[in-house]
Amino acid sequence: MSLPDAPQSVVGADGLPLFGRYAGQAERFDWPALAKPYARNRLWRRLHHKKWHYVSLVTEQLMCAVAIVDVGWTSTCFAYAFDRNDGDIMANYSQDGLPGRFSVGVADSAGGDSWFRTRDTRIAIEHAAGGCYRLELRCPHMEIDAAFGPAGSPLLLATGPVKGGAVHATQKSSGLPLTGEVRTWRDEYRLDGGIASFDYSNGLLARETAWRWASGHNLELGFNLQAGYFGACENALWLDGQIVPLGPAHFIYDQHDPLARWHIFTEDDQLDLVFTPEGARRQDRNLLVAASRYVQPVGTFNGWVRAAPDAPQRIVSQLAGVTEDHFSRW
Predict the structure, then answer these.
(1) pLDDT in tens, 42-52
(2) For residue 45, which of 87, 117, 164, 298 sits 20 to 30 Å off, Cα-Cα?
(3) What CA–CA distance (Å, rounded) separates 267 from 225?
(4) Residues in the chain, pLDDT under 70
(5) Using an 8 Å Cβ cutoff, are 64 and 144 in contact?
(6) Other CB atoms closer than 10 Å to residue 144's CB: what's the count?
(7) Contact predicate 135/17, CB 8 Å
């Protein structure tokens, strides 16, 4: 089942969102142009408009993630570097954007640039020529200079309604060839030959939002799975240069012990995986007006996937990636 080409805008000329899954990149996320019943006033949009730009960098030794998040009335960022050989998080940094003391911008589309700057932190995620991207990070205890792309598969564009909010859209990449370097207090690590992927998300979300997420990629195969506020809208498999839509996903795991094995499968019998964590990044915050509970285990997936319920199974073996259990009141 091939996906239709992505529209230029996720909102149609009639003001209605173009719900569905598409192959390719949208240029505009025109939420102010929404018509009823999805239209909201400017103040509501300001409080409920959430955008984030997340990049994952993976090699045989290292796994890094960097994110810039704009929640409308404030912003945040995080970055970490995990040594897969000894299970140690070598750097784990986060910073809230305090008014008057930061500069932040999350791109208006996956083709734009995002940045976060304070006195001692600089993060830039940039779209370069030829479908390539750059990531530059300078923060306490870690520096990253990375280049990735071009993609061998199209981006996934997924749009859908959100209960308690209005609409949401996201762009996910397949696995992208990676070069560059990570520098920590411990050592310098080459990224050449690794795999990058990214998640650009932009929507009008509910005050309380929760999800489970899984993502893993190499250059031939990858997947994105979510269960929670967005349903099955963004569930997809990249296989041999094509995007295959997947059904609802189920995450069976111990919330009290997220470092135990996870069993993840889809209802359409096209994916069945066991995730074995190697470690995790955690962060719980309660800021009175906002709160979050977050754990992102890093590890490997084993099992099988297939392009259709009657297609042969493709074995997945030691595929590096992440899962996530996340709740936000924002």
Answers:
(1) 999 999 999 99
(2) 117
(3) 12
(4) 1, 98-102, 288
(5) yes
(6) 24
(7) no
